[in-house]
Design brief:
Number of domains: 1
Helix content: 10-25%
Structural class: alpha+beta
CATH superfamily: Hotdog Thioesterase
Largest sheet: 6 strands, mixed
Number of strands: 6
Length: 151
């Protein structure tokens, strides 16, 4: 997985409350970075592709899977870039991929993934993603794997 495949990115700075006594960023903090990146990604999709129906209707998104592989630790005050993309879309779910890069040396220090499910607010059951969502992601990413899609 190359960072050139990632169109979306955000910046994070490792803060004092995120490190241990040795100044190393706690492993759980990366999931906060991933969450920040996912939220910003969806907000950018909403802004650029008018996804108001998905984000303000009778549905919401929940995380059902998260993972992270660590290659090197981040330290206090490190400037990080979190690259994010949607890798696949199914009927009611989609998967994110993330890379975390140290800005000073451009080294990838972690990679992660997560799966998000589109849920009906009333029934709490998975709900078909609207065609507008498929279209917006496909236009934005250009290389997204549609695993299963009903018309």
């Amino acid at each position: 997985m190359e960072k050139l495949e990632f169109k979306h990115q955000i910046s994070e700075t490792v803060k004092f409350h995120e490190v241990d006594m040795l100044g190393v960023c706690n492993n759980a903090v990366y999931f906060n970075y991933f969450e920040d990146a996912r939220i910003k990604y969806i907000q950018d999709l909403k802004k650029n592709y008018n996804l108001k129906v998905v984000l303000e209707g009778n549905s919401f998104f929940i995380m059902v899977h998260n993972d992270c592989d660590y290659f090197e630790s981040a330290q206090l005050d490190d400037e990080l870039i979190v690259y994010t993309k949607i890798d696949f879309i199914k009927n009611s779910s989609f998967g994110f991929l993330h890379l975390v890069e140290k800005n000073n040396n451009k080294k990838i220090i972690a990679k992660g993934s997560g799966v998000v499910v589109h849920i009906n607010k009333m029934t709490k059951e998975p709900m078909q993603l609207p065609q507008e969502f498929f279209d917006a992601v496909y236009i934005y990413e250009s290389k997204v794997n549609v695993i299963k899609k009903n018309s």
